[in-house]
Amino acid sequence: MPAANHWIVTGNFTDDGAVAWRRADGTWSRAIAEAGLLADEASAKAIAARAVAAEQREICDPYGIEVFAEGTTIDPLTARQRIRANGPTTPIRRPDSGISR
Amino acid sequence: MYQYDDYDRRIIIERAQQFRGQVARRLSGEITEEEFKPLRLQNGLYMQLHAYMLRVAIPYGLLSSKQVRKLAHIARTYDKGYAHLTTRQNIQYNWPRLANVPVILDELASVEMHAVQTSGNCVRNITSDHFAGIARDEIEDPRPYCEILRQWSTFHPEFAHLPRKFKIAVTAAPGEDRAAVRFHDIGLRMVENAQGERGFEVLVGGGLGRTPVIAEVVRDFLPKRHMLSYIESILRVYNLAGRRDNKHKARIKILVTALGVEEFRRRVEEDWEKSRTPALELPDAEVARVSAFFAPPPYENIAADPDRLISLGLGRDRDLGNWVKNNVFPHKVPGYSAVVISVKKPGIPPGDVSDTQLDAIADIADRFSFGHTVVTHTQNLVLPDVKTSELPRLHAELRALDLGEANVGKLTDVITCPGLDYCDLANARSIPLSLEIAERFDRIDYLNDVGDVSIKISGCINACGHHHVGNIGILGIDKRGEEFYQLMLGGSPGNDASIGKILGRALAQNEIVDAVEKVLGRYLEIRDSIDERFLDTVRRVGFDPFKEAVYGSADPLEAAGGD
Amino acid sequence: MQIIRDRKIVEDDFIHVADGAELPESGKPIVTLARFLKERATLLPRYPAVGVRIASDKLPSDVPDLAKLALIAVEFPKFTDGRGYSTGRMLRDRHGFTGELRAVGWVLRDQLFYLERCGFNAFEMKPGKPLESGLEAFKEFTVTYQAAVDDPRPFYRRR
Ligand code: SF4
To answer: What ipTM describes this predicted complex?
Structure first.
């Protein structure tokens, strides 16, 4: 594994289903850039496994993913996680979105 | 359309109440996500990539204008101002907060709607012909039977935890199957026997997904009064013997294939002999009670004028002409037409309707179509009862709402599942492909030249976009975390049902629309006349010319390499 | 141990006996189907009441001497394994079983309403789940559409 790859822990917020990223201090953020970097898969798995029970009210189905981190940016390695981090790539159709007429 | 009585209403209100309790237990932390999941999944509430998604049932696709206004209100108040029409005639909201879902259910209940059994391993929303009740080619209106099935399936105590989801579709039009009954767990086709008695041909075990299968006939003729008892026997055999060890082998089609249709039929008939009681027979009075709700609206007496449509189609207003040719369909009552509103405008995700459009559609339905509209499995909307003389006025209004596209049944009327932009199960995105196709081919002369061709896109093997039955099917696959697509040709959902086959190696996202263009280009070169549809050309010439066009070689080894 | 029986919380008067374990001196044992098939000639006369526990892949027709059994316990290995609902219904409707029909295993409050409609009258809840909350579940619906064990008439004959 190249040195710049790390692991982070993610899940979805129970209240609205939004994507959640676990900060280093154990709280949960909506921005992937705030995620706490972990050295390896085993650490991510252990934290996720603990969060399943201990943080179950706040977070649904936590799990670890591998990312590439450089400076202040964190980039996921798969299309799926990129879309989770950035939202739908297609227009979200709101009347005020400027798409509709 | 059907109207709830106090009992129907009470069941839906009690259900909303029950779900409110379940949500409260989740929000208080009393139950975990693992325990809540099967409960929310009994009520159409999924966890998708970015948010919860609530799927609302639209029984057989039929909506009143009052319901459409409510859907608009919900989109505006509890979501991001839009809703998405699904390929099973339902509608879904992509951004509800968990605490709001019980409130949304109350709102829905106030207009006789719900989210019951829109997910989970139970009998799902009953679907039907989107021209039910007005089609010239139907024997009888199938919707009363759909409604009877809806009530029967609602909270059926024995079949709430089947091996897998279960989909039933009903058609009463022998000529053209617009409900794709051969691709459902149970398909009911209304037929008449030699004595002129009406009943159902019962098809079982059709479906798409990982293993696409065309349904087998389990019974040629089932008298209508036995509809429910016979379906119960099919479900009981499946509930007891369907596989539960592997989710990919759990659909009834796998059981029917494994047992063979003969043995499956024997088991069903044996169970049926033991279980059917006179009480289970459907009394004429109940059929009459429900049918009365579907009585024809007060049509005006208009002299038949078949030239009218033709002259509109050829008139000076080309937009109107194309729209009349492509989006207007025959109606059984003289002077009336069925209109399909295309929800496939380039630049907008297919099937997404905004709250303002929904409100406007409700008003239009009131003024032009006796207050009714129907969701199609192709993610469009039908205005079933429009006076032919009002078509120009209607078209002008729809156009002003971005709903005037003249592309129904054409290349850009793409069926598209939510894909990796929303769906937790997806391998690849669907919507961007669909948008690219819409943009690339958005020239009406080209659309008309290519003619009737269906493109269907699924973001994974679950096949919500029905890719196997697209004349051109596109399936998203995952290759080491990146999005790739398989291109399939030759599928068809209707009476001439067939399952598409993979053309060659999987293509990257930036190759797939080029490939579609090459396939179409080759078709235009080799069709034997302008009347030969794309599907017929594929069936006539096979895959080689298309492989050659896309991959530069008809050699299957080279073309199919890798996949 | 407490169970729900006939919509009341009661002390269980039956004893589950594992395969290979010693049978009780007296009382009402529940044995597995395998053991029952082997030992039924001695079991039935020895105890005032005998129950049989069946796995979710067994059918009523797999159980002999149904009429002599005081109880059948149907296993629900998972919340989502719905075979037992059909088993219950067949036991009551087709085989005329009148003894106690008990759901055991992964049994949560949100199954109880359906289970009762399919003929179950006793429930061993999944450990750790409050029984009181289970009692509420029976009252959540006051109208039903289908014929089932609790009423052989579909709603269109009661409407
Ligand atoms: S086909 Fe797959 S990706 Fe598309 S909506 Fe269905 S499950 Fe999701």
So the answer is: 0.96
